[in-house]
Write a structure and sequence with these properties.
Layout (H helix, E strand, L loop, with lengths): L7 H22 L5 H13 L2 E2 H8 L3 H13 L3 E5 L7 E5 L1 H22 L4 H17 L1
Antiparallel strand pairs: 1-3, 2-3
Helix pairs in contact: 1-5, 2-3, 3-4
């Protein structure tokens, strides 16, 4: 006997999220980046100088994992860490020139992929989707 899914919206949301994640992961692999590494670079590219905690809050990753990812990206010369002059406990992270060059190459394709995935939605549908997702998120 086949069981009926009691929460189809949840199932579809998770499948959609995985499909988007997998597509971005495949594209980033072409640049020898994992999805988390790309996410760190994207935050720095979009927002500029950030603390490790600020980056972690943006991409929802623990500080221990963040340190590992930042170490790897720093070894590749894509970002740098600098002590905050006002608070020695705080480290600021910024993209290097190489990191900026890489992101300038990657971002147009990334934006194209994201736009393609959502271009079947009208602007009204996209707005409704955002409202519905926020409604679910805020219930948590």
């Amino acid at each position: 006997m086949e069981r009926k899914c009691n929460n189809l919206p949840f199932l579809i949301l998770m499948q959609t999220s995985k499909a988007i994640h997998d597509r971005i992961k495949d594209e980033m692999a072409k640049n020898k980046l994992g999805i988390t590494e790309f996410s760190v670079l994207e935050v720095l590219y979009e927002k500029g100088k950030q603390t490790i905690q600020q980056i972690g809050n943006c991409i929802l990753i623990s500080s221990g994992s963040m340190t590992y990812v930042i170490d790897k990206l720093e070894q590749r010369g894509l970002l740098s860490r600098n002590a905050c002059p006002d608070d020695r406990r705080v480290m600021h992270v910024t993209l290097t020139d190489d990191g900026n060059r890489l992101m300038n190459e990657i971002m147009p394709k990334y934006i194209e992929i994201i736009n393609h995935m959502f271009d079947s939605l009208s602007s009204d549908e996209a707005e409704i989707l955002v409202q519905l997702l926020k409604k679910v998120r805020n219930k948590v």
